[in-house]
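Example 3.2
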Amino acid sequence: MTETIRTGASAGGAGQPATPSGVSPKGLKGGQLGLLAVVVLGISTIAPAYTLTSALGPTVNEAGLQLPVIFLIGFIPMILVSLAYRELNADSPDSGTTFTWVTKAFGPWIGWMGGWGLLAANIIVLSNLAGVAVDFFYLFLSQLTGSPELADLADNKPLNVLTCFVFVALAVWVSYRGLHTTKVVQYSLVGFQLLVLGLFVAMAFANWSTSETAIPFSWDWFDVTKIETFGQIAAGISLSIFVYWGWDVCLTVNEETANGKKTAGVAGTLTAVIVLAIYLLVSIATMMFAGVGDTGNGLNNAENHENIFTALASPIMGPFAILMSLAVLSSSAASLQSTFMSPSRSLLAMAHYEALPEPFSRVSRKFATPGYATVAAGILSAGFYAVMHVLSENVLNDTILALGLMICFYYGLTAIACAWYFRNSVFSSLRNFVLRFLCPVLGGVGLFVVFFQTAVDSLAPEFGSGSEVFGVGLVFVLGVGILALGAVFMLVMSRLRPRFFRGETLKQDTPALVVPE
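Structure, written as tokens:
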């Protein structure tokens, strides 16, 4: 049994004093990651190949030919929120990120719900990642052996769930062993993924005119006025937000990064910009080759929605299609592993400050990782996937839409918390006004508008896959229902762990009026 270190805010983080900003160390090993490693970790978590094969179809279904402009619009709140994260990280670098910063700005109750939103989003996406990994694992075996029937094994629900459990277990094992093992895995998998995406884009541009559903490039694809309703914009942005989500893992590892106050924030913003460039190239190339029709290779063909690259890899890449299957498999597997960084460290921070039961605060002495929290996150994500696979006929689409709600909630809350936390210094300089007030407020308000619009729309059973629970759309049940469930757990924790909710372990405060470097 690996020996563990138990940390706690009341003990000053295993005997280590709290910083002037009120946060305290949790037993994690600092200085393990540099800027490149953190950016690679961020790209891995976003997982461009996996994300696009899952979200490209649903996003085109909402936005049509305006897919590129939707990606650009969805990027705006992301970059604004990333600037808010950078400011908060420079003041209080803490692995709890949203939970810690929102608590410091608004107090323990709202902070706890912010942490819950982050945890829920990560558990949902971990199950989704595992599902994509399973699908492409059997597709890859089918292409490798020339046996089409192997691809159909993914439709066998018991086998599908069992394979999912194996993938989750492997990801937990790598995450538990620490950042050194993680870096070795991520450099190879992310590099391969980006190489294959580059090949896919090049071949799509080269061969687009040979496709029966091809359409020529048009600058009208960047014209937002051609989208008919705001509901379409909100749904499209909600889905595009999903495709950018994951850069905040760069901030989650701030306590383990060299010069974490600066490096983690820069890495988060840089990751978002790199991913935007990748998405625009892939989306334009794919639209030109496949078009947006609802037949054949068309991106609006419902049969293609769940895994776009499954449908388009062969027409575009020919004999090299197997590389795309392997790229999506490696992308989802790599992201499955790297994504564990966020919930495990959030659980660690919440327990460290006594907002969750003490076992979650245990850190492995040998690997310097939140071992108990990592295993718990794996069990929760695997269980969620098993339940969703039974309830929903289109598990990927529904979880993506619900995930968009979760992301809007906790990203928006963190951005607003930034403006409030720094309220005493926002008018001390133009730089502070823009980065600590204007950008966070615009980003946060924009995300909450999308959150409420999508929540209202998702009440209807026909929203998403059409699955429902007692007449209410499954997307609403997942998105809003899980947040409501969090409020119930919060009340339970307030009875079991009252010191946090009394503000004794992590205090609400306001920083001094200072201008950062």
